[in-house]
Design goal:
Chain A is mostly beta strands and 886 residues long. Chain A has a domain at 2-104: Immunoglobulins (Immunoglobulin-like, Sandwich), CATH 2.60.40. In chain A, the strands form five sheets. Chain A has a 33-stranded mixed sheet that branches. Helices cover 27% and strands 38% of the residues of chain B. Chain B is an alpha+beta fold and 273 residues long. Chain B starts with a helix and ends in a 12-residue tail after the last helix. Chain B has helices at 2-18, 66-83, 89-99, 223-233, 237-243, 253-261; strands spanning 22-37, 48-57, 61-65, 108-111, 115-122, 125-132, 138-146, 149-158, 161-168, 186-192, 197-214, 219-220. In chain B, helix 2 runs antiparallel to helix 3. In chain B, strand 10 and strand 11 form a beta hairpin. The chains are: A mainly beta (886), B alpha+beta (273). Chains A and B meet through strand 2, strand 3 and strand 9 of A and strand 1, strand 2, helix 3, strand 7 and strand 8 of B.
Chain lengths: 886, 273
């Protein structure tokens, strides 16, 4: 009844309007029903021009299926479109006049087509998580490291290590290629963010394809996807500062194509920025590769070094460094890559300071003061050539490495009204080749590892005037001592292993052979007024050291629920053959050793984890603890070890408990470790009245033990917006040694308490406080040394006056107490950064050591000596720098 | 007297079971929107993003954050396992915690032809309120192509903001992001005129998904009451977030804290219409 009336009224007005003028409004109404004549609500009814799609008027049917459309159109006819999800669309061309159109829609099986419109900022496909760089990059971000910091789940530590979900990444790839072998700071800090389209996290990444389905990995790798197939890019930084003229410059161009990659960098500064960090290996995998048969440079002769202050390098490092590196990768064919990494560092460092050393020997105390001025010339060239084949059928990697150092040092010590000149030339060469080959034989995998290393250490030391007159020159003063050393070392280790799993057990048997041959040649030459004598007898070495070892071991792993057991059972047959033809000394030793290790982990629940380790290890003396003739290591250290081979057995136990509750923001950790070591030789020294010492071993069974307990906890207090961290540790160390021929027992106890507070005062200001309090107590034949108390307090204020400005203000306080010394040092530093938003240029101003603190004094004691060292620091300095991409 | 009360209670419970308090529907399509929004109206540089879902059912549609929906399904699954004694309570809590995904949007908007039901949380307390659908859309003949869709511009205003929506009548779903619906085609893109809230459809997929809500188990409130309660809790939000275990990169802490502090100063609904 009512409906009828409304229709009538509409009709009336409709007719009225048509007659009134050309401007018309057509009203169409009706009811939409489905096949069963049930009302269909939510149907859209649109009016368009014939065969067009732009909607002029529309209606959505109501709960009862009814609709009304009002059309303002001059055309003679209109098109009515009726559509509802799941029903066939109905199109009706009608005369443009008000009318009632009831529609019955037919159900359809036809589906809407699926559409993907835009890529997401973070997407996950299988084990790959893609981060769209454009979504995270803000205007101030220059290099990819800046953007990485903002990606959820990714963290970048101060030293550049990238963490994903709190764990270090295992590989850093650029376009799937591992150019830098873990030295990814170079790319991360210099690759402009603009060149990168995506950052991918490869979860559960197994870098070796053949192991992919066999060895589960819970580690993640990072891959950088570039925007273009061919990318030529880079960054540059230029900084200058006050007197003496300071500079800090970096130019890093890069090239990436599908088959070739190159990163080259030249960096130089004299601001205390240690560039060796740029070349540090940050991935555990690559570090472990390097650890096998360690062939790092070892110096046999040194000038008297100063102990470096225990805080940031940039406060004290007086350097003048140039670093050049180039890294090149070429894909030879599918899955076969050749890489070349070259780096050259040239650094000139100066050290100035005073060391006061007190030796506490039975019945006497000897004290010396050394005022040292040291110059270090560091020169090294490192090269690496790597060939890899990484397919699903086999894996082959050959790494050839050649490193050369041309280091030399000179030092002048003013001590007790004397001047001592020291000159050291300590070059070093190492050449190594490593092969890792994994091949599948049926369902078993066979792994072959082979390492060959050759190192050459020709070094010499000159001391003016001559020391150790008693031993070297019949107790008469003389002009100069010259110590010459030549060590050549050959090492090879070859092993084959299999991996096989049975249910919850995994067995990895391994057999191998290790060979080491070392030739040590040393000479001491005495320069007297008129004569030059090369000393013979006990003052030279012509030593040959051979170590052969055959080993077999079985690694057994067992995993069940929250338990993880690992048992290692290595048997080694070791043979030593040592002889010095000139001194007519020789010894041989054969030993069969068993060094088991048990590791147990239990995840009690997701908050609490516990681990337990017990191990036993047998060690034998290395060549640097086994030679028959004297060697002068530095102006007050003369050593020889005229004894059987050192044999030591170490038993170790450790237990740790780890609690983390993110809801209550409580994190806590407790650990205990103890070790007991017994050995056949006792270390001894003979200290002369001028501070010079001779070191040796005496045959006497002795033991040492060490215990350590540490506790730490942190909690966030939401009401105070503050995180509080507390750590405490205590350690106890007991050992025996000979001091001037008398056996002595020494005990040292160390207590440490660390605290940290991070708090936010206002939105534009935050405050951090860090403190460290430690007490060192040394007992020496039941007689106590003065205890040393060290305190360290660091305050850091950050201000953000606006979004593109940052002001940082540091205050540091160091205090040392002990033996009547009461040293206090203060530091103030200021940093200011301004970002030009449009041009992506960072301007930075650093003012370090505002108070111009000249030096710092630290005290330290160990079993029988007490050292107080004063180190000259970098003066107050201002550096202004500009940084940009190209 | 007691009989009367019992009868009332019985009738009440009866009416609750058979009233519209139980919402169950089967969705056949899933539209995924990316929401870019400004949490802090004083910092125009910093935009946040979150993915939002529109599940289109026969009678109802459901709009909520994708992460929120994920968390809900994890919880539902764990509760189910717990009820079937497959896991203990502690394990359930732990699993829920480890799988929990970060979201700033806890709301669920259940849209029907006549009204919207909004379920939202103030910390762990759940509330729902009803809201009439009375958007006044003005369609224009302006069109633009978004990928394969020809979209037409429509404007409206809601809760203190003016909006521009681009809908495509080639998709017969009269729905869209947030509380927006009622155009003769799916809204592909939508933003307010100040560009503080920007919804862009990322994908439309065929997806069978079920959703059900038992309103009888949720505290009923009005929109006004709910917004008042929320306003009272604004100040404490940062602390609560950090308490929940979100940690922030040391070097950016203050900026992040500042951002979070301001995160609720620019909500999508500036006023209650």
């Amino acid at each position: 009844m009512i409906k009828f009336r409304i229709t009538q009224i509409f009709l009336f007005f409709g007719i009225l309007l048509i007659f009134a003028n050309n401007y018309s409004q057509t009203i169409i109404n009706g009811k939409i029903t489905d096949e069963t004549s049930q009302p269909l609500s939510g149907t859209s009814i649109t009016a368009t021009k014939i065969n067009e799609s732009v909607v002029n008027a529309y209606a959505i049917s109501d709960y009862y299926g009814n609709y009304t459309i009002k059309i303002d159109a001059k055309s003679d006819s209109v098109q009515i479109n009726v559509s509802h999800l799941g029903y066939t669309k109905l199109v009706k061309k009608i005369v443009n006049k008000s009318q009632t159109i009831n529609v019955n829609l037919q159900e359809t099986e036809e589906k809407l087509k699926e559409v993907f419109l835009r890529t997401l900022p973070i997407t996950k496909k299988g084990d790959t998580i893609n981060y769209l760089v454009s979504a995270f990059k803000s205007q101030k971000d220059l290099v990819i490291a800046d953007v990485l910091k903002k990606m959820p789940g990714i963290e970048v530590l101060d030293n550049g290590t990238i963490l994903y979900q709190g764990k270090p990444i295992v590989k850093y790839y650029i376009e799937g290629l591992d150019l830098l072998e873990g030295k990814y700071n170079l790319a991360n800090n210099n690759l402009p963010a603009d060149a990168v389209t995506k950052v991918q996290i490869l979860e559960n990444h197994q870098p070796i394809k053949i192991l992919d389905s066999l060895v589960y990995s819970d580690k993640a790798a990072l891959n950088i996807k570039l925007k273009k197939n061919i990318t030529l890019t880079g960054t540059a930084k230029l900084g200058v500062g006050n007197y003496p003229f300071l500079w800090d410059t970096n130019v890093t161009p890069m090239l990436f194509t599908k088959k070739q990659q190159m990163i080259t960098s030249y960096q130089t500064n004299n601001t205390g920025n240690d560039l060796s960090n740029e070349l540090k290996i940050l991935t555990i995998e690559d570090l472990l590769d390097q650890a096998e048969g360690n062939h790092e440079k070892k110096d046999w002769v040194t000038i008297q070094q100063l102990s470096s202050p225990p805080f940031a390098t940039k406060r004290w490092l007086d350097n003048n460094v140039h670093m050049f590196t180039t890294n090149y990768l070429v894909r030879l064919k599918k899955e076969v890559d050749l890489k070349v990494n070259l780096s050259y560092i040239n650094d000139f460092q100066k050290q100035n300071g005073i060391t006061q050393t007190t030796f506490y020997i039975p019945n006497d105390t000897i004290s010396i003061v050394e005022n040292a001025k040291n110059k270090l010339f560091l020169n090294s060239l490192k090269s690496k050539f790597i060939l890899t084949k990484n397919t699903t059928k086999n894996y082959f990697k050959n790494t050839f490495e050649a490193n050369k150092y041309w280091d030399s040092n000179s030092g002048i010590i003013s001590s007790n009204d004397e001047e001592i000149n020291q000159k050291v030339s300590n070059p070093f060469t190492s050449i190594s080749n490593r092969i890792k080959w994994i091949q599948a034989f049926g369902k078993k995998l066979i792994t072959i590892n082979s390492v060959i290393i050759y190192t050459n250490t020709p070094q010499d030391l000159t001391i003016t005037p001559g020391y150790y007159e008693d031993l070297l020159n019949n107790a008469k003063p003389y002009d100069k001592t010259h110590q010459k050393i030549h060590l050549s070392n050959f090492y090879t280790n070859n092993a084959v292993s299999f991996t096989k799993g049975y249910g919850r057990f995994t067995f990895t048997p391994k057999i191998g052979m290790k060979l080491q041959n070392q030739q040590l040649d040393s000479r001491i030459t005495i320069f007297r007024n008129l004569s030059i004598d090369e000393l013979t007898g006990n003052y030279k070495n012509n030593l040959s050291y051979n170590n052969t070892s055959f080993y077999t071991m079985l690694n057994t792993q067992y995993k069940y629920k929250n338990w993880n057991f690992e048992l290692e059972t290595p048997f080694k047959f070791q043979g030593f053959d040592i002889s010095d033809a000139d001194l007519n000394k020789a010894q041989k030793l054969n030993r069969l050793t068993f060094e088991p290790r048990v590791y147990i982990r239990n995840d009690i629940n997701s908050f609490l984890k516990t681990t337990f380790t017990v191990s036993s290890k047998k060690d034998f003396g290395e060549i640097n603890q086994l030679y028959y003739g004297y060697i002068l290591n530095n102006y007050r250290g003369l050593k020889r070890y005229e004894t059987p081979i050192l044999e030591s057995e170490k038993k170790n136990i450790s237990l740790s408990l780890n609690y983390r509750n993110p809801i209550k923001s409580v994190f806590a950790n407790a650990s205990y470790s103890a070790s007991y070591e017994s050995q056949n030789l006792m270390f001894g020294n003979l200290i002369n009245s001028n501070g010079t010492a001779t070191y040796s071993f005496i045959e006497k069974d002795n033991s040492s033990n060490t215990q350590n307990i540490s506790l730490s906890a942190s909690k966030y207090f939401s009401a105070l917006k503050t995180t509080l961290t507390l750590m405490t540790s205590t350690s106890l160390d007991k050992r025996q040694q000979l001091l001037n021929g008398i056996p002595t027992n020494s005990t040292s106890k160390n207590y440490q308490i660390n605290g940290k507070i991070n708090t936010e005062i206002t939105a534009w200001m935050s405050f951090n406080y860090k403190s460290n309090f430690s007490v060192l107590n040394t007992l020496f034949n039941q007689q106590s040394f003065d205890r040393i108390i060290m305190q360290e307090h660091l305050w850091h204020f950050s201000f953000y006056p606006s979004s593109n400005q940052y002001i940082g203000f540091d205050t540091e306080f160091y205090k040392n107490n002990g033996s009547g010394i009461n040293q206090e040092n203060y530091f103030l530093n200021l940093n200011y950064r301004y970002t030009l938003k449009k041009s992506k240029i960072d301007l930075e101003l650093n003012w370090n050591n505002i108070l111009n603190t000249k030096e710092i004094t630290t005290v330290y004691n160990n079993t029988f000596l007490y050292t107080q060292s004063t180190y000259k620091l970098r003066p107050s300095q201002i550096l202004a720098s500009i940084k940009f991409n190209f | 007297m007691i009989n009367k009360l019992a009868l009332t209670l019985f009738l009440l419970s009866f009416s609750q079971i058979y009233s519209q308090d139980l919402i169950v529907d089967k969705a056949s399509y899933k539209a995924l929107y990316n929401l870019t929004y400004l949490r802090d109206s004083t910092n125009l540089q910093k935009k946040s993003e979150e993915k939002m879902l529109l599940l289109v059912g026969k009678k109802y549609s459901l709009f909520q954050s994708e992460n929120n929906r994920f968390n809900d399904s994890v919880k539902a699954n764990l509760v189910n396992q717990f009820n079937n004694k497959k896991i203990d309570a502690q394990t359930g809590v732990n699993m829920a915690l480890t799988q929990n995904k970060y979201t700033l949007f806890d709301f669920k908007i259940i849209k029907s032809n006549t009204e919207h039901i909004v379920i939202d949380k103030i910390f762990s307390d759940k509330f729902y309120y009803k809201e009439q659908q009375n958007l006044n859309w003005v369609i224009t003949d302006e069109t633009k192509q978004i990928n394969s869709y020809l979209c037409q511009k429509a404007t409206t205003s809601y809760a203190g903001r003016s909006y521009i929506a681009w809908f495509s009548n080639s998709i017969p779903i009269a729905d869209g992001p947030y509380k927006f619906a009622g155009l003769p085609g799916l809204i592909i893109e939508m933003y307010d005129t100040r560009f503080h809230y920007h919804f862009e459809m990322l994908s439309l997929e065929q997806k069978t998904d079920y959703f059900s809500f038992d309103l009888a188990k949720i505290q009923k409130t009005s929109k006004v009451e709910f917004f008042n309660a929320l306003a009272n809790l604004k100040k404490d939000i940062i602390g609560q977030l950090e308490q929940r275990g979100f940690s922030f990169d040391e070097s950016n802490t203050i900026q992040i804290k500042r951002t979070i502090k301001n995160n609720r100063n620019n909500q999508i609904e500036l006023q209650i219409d």
